[in-house]
Design brief:
With 389 residues, the protein is α/β, with parallel strands linked by helices. The chain is built from 15 helices and nine strands.
Length: 389
Amino acid sequence: MYQSINFATPSVIFGMGSINQTGAEAAKLGAKRALLVTGPNVQKSGSVDRAVDSLRASGIETEVKVEARNTPEPATRIAEEVSVFAREMGADCVIGLGGGSVLDVAKMSAALVINPLRVRDYFGKEKLPARGIPTIMIPTTSGTGAEVTKHAIFLDEETSVKKAVASTNLLPNTAIIDPMLTVSCPPAVTASAGIDAFMHAAEPFVSKAANPITDNLSLNAIALIAKWIGPAFADGDNLDARYYMSLGSLMAGMVLNNAGTSLVHALAYPIGGEYHINHGRSLTPIMLACFDYIMVAKQDKFILMAEALGENVKGLAPYEAAQLCLKSLKALLRRLDLPVCLNDLDITDKSKVDRWAVDAHAEQRLLSRCARTLTVDDIKKIYLASFSA
């Protein structure tokens, strides 16, 4: 079979100290007046000053907007407020500097400068009619991949469910990935962001949307993250670990942008939205049950993942080798102090499963890529299997 492949990515600048290229990259985009969007913790780290100094050294006037939030995913109103600020200051470029939520706000606010409606009007696939003003994304965690994707995730406060804007018009112009910016990440953030990156590589790998390019990126990202997430978690000053985690996260982000996530993310949205759990920790309690349910469709790829995780599958029956992938993942989650099941998060109320299953099944943008066709009852079974390890 000859597969047709479309592969999209922003211009990528990767390397230690690459934040110092922010001004030069903004100038290439024709920026004269930039808005830099960040969060309070990043502002304290000194990274904002370095970016601003670089921008101003390139003759670009710069305003900084620090955005705080009280939920793991930003509410839609935050992006709307930032877009008003950008429009009023006459910004011709938006720079996001922070974790995935900050980058999502920056991407969406730049889009809203041009597109007139509210964020919720653009939820779904390819509903954003025009590109916004140019954007540069600079991540401070190794995880979300938001710097190279066409997605922005928000909490819809009207429904308490996380929802996505997914549009090629949201893809950043430039991504600057500086591993040094991740050194200040505490262990819990390193773990949750790192496992998010892992899922961006692993979940598309076993989906219908995979292609030879994303498959190779996926396996390399899985191997890098499996090897280096532990050292980065244990010692945040380990520069080798920070470098390779950033590289693995970048590769995984490219996979996410071009093959997309599926079952695990669809089932995590209702839980994360209801309990306000950060994104990485909302994925891990359901990961093993989801993977176990779709293994029947992609057993060969689970064997390849087991090998990328460092497991020796030689001499094992195919089913045993595929199951070794799940065993290895469970051990990795335990080592990183991440929840393996819903009970680990003190979520014990099974009466909510019916509602979660309906909400998750509605995420057909994601589930259409799942290797196994699932009914609402199938999804209920996965949730129920996720309460205990």
